[in-house]
């Protein structure tokens, strides 16, 4: 079930995007006039918000109470985030606005721009802040200089925070957008170190698809390393009433996949291994090879030390990783590793998980969503 939100200046713009993305038979669920606040709240502009869904999605969930509940939930969450298509215009506008803000700030330097004796100065202060948040040292330096290093680009602290976020987003480009599992992906493998939440996240994603009633989900576990691992996934499969197959070794994979041939989305759980050891990576790679997964998602816990997470991501590269899943957002207050890893690995974020509850504690968040708290950050200098 896909419900998308479009924020446009004129209705024909929305209709064109809806037809292109959701098909000729897409259904417009609602329209309303809204005002979009611009950066720093300096001005707002009129826009039309349009909610639309693909017709077959509506048909698939019609009458099913679970489906309707999910439709509502997704529509609610969709209203909180701009859709990627609406984003492209918004992102171009954002870049223009950042340039405009920079000019305005240069023209009206505030008294607190003057660097008091002994203070760090904006570049050093923000660099220290970013590193403390978990951003890689080189990137912290780059982003602080990009945003604050030019003479005259200063202002009060919140303006500096906005300039910094603007610099990070301009560096990340399209990678700052969330990238959940594609509609045309059939086999999706989850890899990552031990205990990061791979199995739980698979259960959440499977449950959401079952509730949506749109894709026939199957589970495949290649985790026979831990005794309880198969039982864990089987329990979820029983609850959700979806088929499950087990592959003990690479040679088992074709048989296991064949038993799930009726499924149009197969979520593959792999054994959590020590990703610092190249032998573990090799074993995972051998297991993945016969699957020919459409997407490989690297699961990283946000409670991991940023330097270790970067090492894990680098070690995982031979696995053909496409995207990140960041778990345990609820167990950390520093999210600096997110833009840092996205920039260094050039993989976008598929999902972010926020707790142990299946299926509720999972979200589709953009980098700006995750970094929003930085706008309120207290930074020396
Ligand atoms: N706080 C919190 N806990 C989570 C989250 N996701 C998973 N967990 C918990 O993390 C623990 C490990 O989860 P699993 O899903 O078994 O992790 P795994 O990666 O499959 O573990 P292995 O298969 O042993 O490598 C469980 O207690 C989960 O409930 C999350 O977003 N937040
Ligand atoms: Mg597991």
TrEMBL record:
Domain SRP54-type proteins GTP-binding: 185-372
Primary localization: membrane
The AAA+ ATPase domain, residue ranges: 184-304
Pfam family, one: SRP54
Gene3D superfamilies given in the database record: Flagellar FlhF biosynthesis protein, N domain, P-loop containing nucleotide triphosphate hydrolases
Signal sequence coordinates: none
Subcellular location: Cell membrane
Keywords tagged on the record: Bacterial flagellum biogenesis, Bacterial flagellum protein export, Cell membrane, Cell projection, Cilium, Flagellum, GTP-binding, Membrane, Nucleotide-binding, Protein transport, Transport
Source organism, top-level taxon: Bacteria
Membrane topology, as annotated: Peripheral membrane protein
Known function: Necessary for flagellar biosynthesis. May be involved in translocation of the flagellum.
Record-linked NCBIfam families: FlhF
Family named by the database record: Belongs to the GTP-binding SRP family.
Protein name (database record): Flagellar biosynthesis protein FlhF
The species this protein was found in: Alicyclobacillus sendaiensis PA2
């Amino acid at each position: 079930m896909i419900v998308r939100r479009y924020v446009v200046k004129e209705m024909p713009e929305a209709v064109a995007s809806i037809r292109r993305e959701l098909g000729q038979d897409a259904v417009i669920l609602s329209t309303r006039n809204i005002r979009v606040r611009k950066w720093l709240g300096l001005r707002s502009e009129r826009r039309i918000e349009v909610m639309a869904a693909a017709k077959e999605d509506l048909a698939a969930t019609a009458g099913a109470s679970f489906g309707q509940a999910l439709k509502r939930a997704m529509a609610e969450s969709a209203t909180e985030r701009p859709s990627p298509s609406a984003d492209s215009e918004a992102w171009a506008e954002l870049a223009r606005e950042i340039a405009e803000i920079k000019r305005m700030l240069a023209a009206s330097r505030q008294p607190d721009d003057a660097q008091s004796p002994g203070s760090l100065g904006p570049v050093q202060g923000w660099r220290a802040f970013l590193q403390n948040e978990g951003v890689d040292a080189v990137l912290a330096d780059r982003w602080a200089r990009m945003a604050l290093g030019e003479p005259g680009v200063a202002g009060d602290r919140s303006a500096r925070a906005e300039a910094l976020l603007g610099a990070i987003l301009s560096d990340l480009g399209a990678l700052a957008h969330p990238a959940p599992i594609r509609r045309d992906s059939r086999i999706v493998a989850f890899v990552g170190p031990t205990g990061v939440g791979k199995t739980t996240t698979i259960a959440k994603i499977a449950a959401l698809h079952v509730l949506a009633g749109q894709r026939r989900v199957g589970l495949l576990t290649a985790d026979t390393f831990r005794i309880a691992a198969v039982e864990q996934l089987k329990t979820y499969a029983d609850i959700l009433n979806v088929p499950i197959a087990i592959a003990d070794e690479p040679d088992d994979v074709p048989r296991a996949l064949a038993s799930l041939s009726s499924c149009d989305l197969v979520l593959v759980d792999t054994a959590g291994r020590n990703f610092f050891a190249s032998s573990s990576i090799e074993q995972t790679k051998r297991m993945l090879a016969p699957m020919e997964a459409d997407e490989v998602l690297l699961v990283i816990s946000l409670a991991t030390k940023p330097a270790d997470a970067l090492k894990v991501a680098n070690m995982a590269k031979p696995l053909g990783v496409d995207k990140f899943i960041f778990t345990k957002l609820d167990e950390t207050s520093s999210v600096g590793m997110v833009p840092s890893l996205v920039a260094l690995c050039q993989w976008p974020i598929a999902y972010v998980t926020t707790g142990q509850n299946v299926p509720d504690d999972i979200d589709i968040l953009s980098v700006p969503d995750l970094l929003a708290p930085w706008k309120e950050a207290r930074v020396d200098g």
